[in-house]
Amino acid sequence: MGGTHRTRLTVVLAAGLLVPAVLTSCAQPTDPGAPTTPTEDAMSPTEDTPTPIEPSAPASDWTGVELAPGVVVRGLPDGVEGTQDSPVGAAWSPAEGLLYVITYGSSSCPTTTEPEAADDGGTVVVTLVPPPADAICTMDYAPTTSVVGVPEGTDSGEAVSVRLGDAGTVDLAPRPAPDEPGPVAWVPAR
């Protein structure tokens, strides 16, 4: 019986030594001073992986905002009236060459615009940029205003057609006076 006991003890001891040896052989060697995050090569995108673009958060109000293409502000600019009957509209800003594009939707995930519009045979084309599909958004319905630069010669003091993405086209009236915003032309609700 003594020989069987020794054999079992030897097997248990050998197994006890074998498990740590197997586990450590599977582990990656580490340098105690090395960073614990993936290397830059491991984190860099491949040709097939698009690099996400983080939209900037809209300013919370118009205080101190300088009008320039790409500026996005929650709410309506001074002198511009909103509506609950349309999801998007446009108006001339007080600054020449710049449009206000007003969208309604979630205040935390607004639809915004590209900073510059294009000219398509006399129609100003504004590209709308929806919020990311996986965004977690508030369930409110509020206006957000994007400032958009227009092609040279478009802001000539005459009525202009403006295509607001897939939402529709509006005819934009000129400003009533210099340094004042123009009236908003709203896309009819569908």
Provide a descriptive summary of the structure in words.
The chain is an alpha+beta fold and 190 residues long. The chain has a domain at 72-186. 15% of the residues lie in helices and 25% in strands. The protein is built from two helices and eleven strands; from the N terminus they run H-H-E-E-E-E-E-E-E-E-E-E-E. It has helices at 2-26, 40-43; strands at 72-74, 88-92, 98-105, 112-113, 118-120, 123-126, 128-129, 142-149, 160-164, 168-172, 185-186. The strands form three sheets. A five-stranded antiparallel beta sheet has the order 1-8-3-2-11, with no helix packed on it. The chain starts with a helix and ends with a strand.
Protein topology:
Elements: H1 2-26, H2 40-43, E1 72-74, E2 88-92, E3 98-105, E4 112-113, E5 118-120, E6 123-126, E7 128-129, E8 142-149, E9 160-164, E10 168-172, E11 185-186
Parallel strand pairs: 6-9
Antiparallel strand pairs: 1-8, 2-3, 2-11, 3-8, 4-7, 5-6, 9-10
The geometry reads as globular
Biggest sheet: strands side by side, in what order?
1-8-3-2-11
Average pLDDT works out at 79
The helix/strand order is HHEEEEEEEEEEE
Helix content: 10-25%
Question: What's the count of strands?
Answer: 11
**Count of helix runs:** 2
Task: Briefly say what this structure is.
The protein is of the alpha+beta class and 190 residues long.
